[in-house]
Write a structure and sequence with these properties.
The complex is a heterodimer of chains A (about 100) and B (about 180). With about 100 residues, chain A is mainly alpha-helical. Chain A has 3 helices and no strands. The interface between A and B is medium-sized, with 28 and 40 residues.
Amino acid sequence: MNLEDELRAALRREDPSLGFAKRVVARAQSRRAPRKTMPRFIWAVAIAAMLVIGLTATYEVRQMKAERAGRDAVLALRIAADKLNSAREKVVRREN
Amino acid sequence: MRRILLITFIAVCASSRLPAQLLQLRITGLDGLASKATESADITLDSNLLQMAAGFLAGADKESKDGETLKQLLAGLKAITVRSFKFKETGQYRREDLEPIRAQLRSPGWSKIISSQTKEESSEIYTRIEQGKVAGFAIIAAEPRELTIVAIEGSINLNDLSKLKALGVPSIPVPDKKGKQE
């Protein structure tokens, strides 16, 4: 047998045995990775953490806003008091 | 029927709020001055912000009476608006710039309680009295290099206000224009 005949024999077309396709599908399904599910407590922790972060951020923003308003109110009242006193002094000075 | 009642309710609410809104002083016509000024203050506080400010100041200054005094003073207020400008040179604003504000203060309800006028400067103080109490207060202080307009809405005791400096109100550091603490 020469090389040419050996190759022809090796590459000869052969039909698969009966039930080959079914066996392939069955094996593929058996190897499919199991579906991972996240435990419920992780969801609960994540939601609780988000709530805490959200509430803390809201409180901080409110505090900053209040601080800014407080400083503005002090400055506004100081300017008002200063100008009120200045006007009163001018009137008193003029009358004297 | 419900719709008619709702419309009536909204109309009653709107009409009851209208006079107060009309009497509230609006500081207009000074928008261009901030760019000319070396220092300026632009403060607008509505009732919500004033409530927050009162809470913050009372908490920040618990040990002295000032915090409580401030809280009481702010409790009666509905709005504060301050526009203050300091200029390097004279002639940066015109007397006519103040006319829209003066025109509002000439409307019924407002009365001038202090007026000091010289060639170079003027100080005017107006109040609006409602049911025997001060319900509004306005200051126009025009100096050659400084212009200040203050409008306060709500009940305020002017004697308490004038004493504020003596009470040491600015115990809380107030940031200046560059953000530094005084």
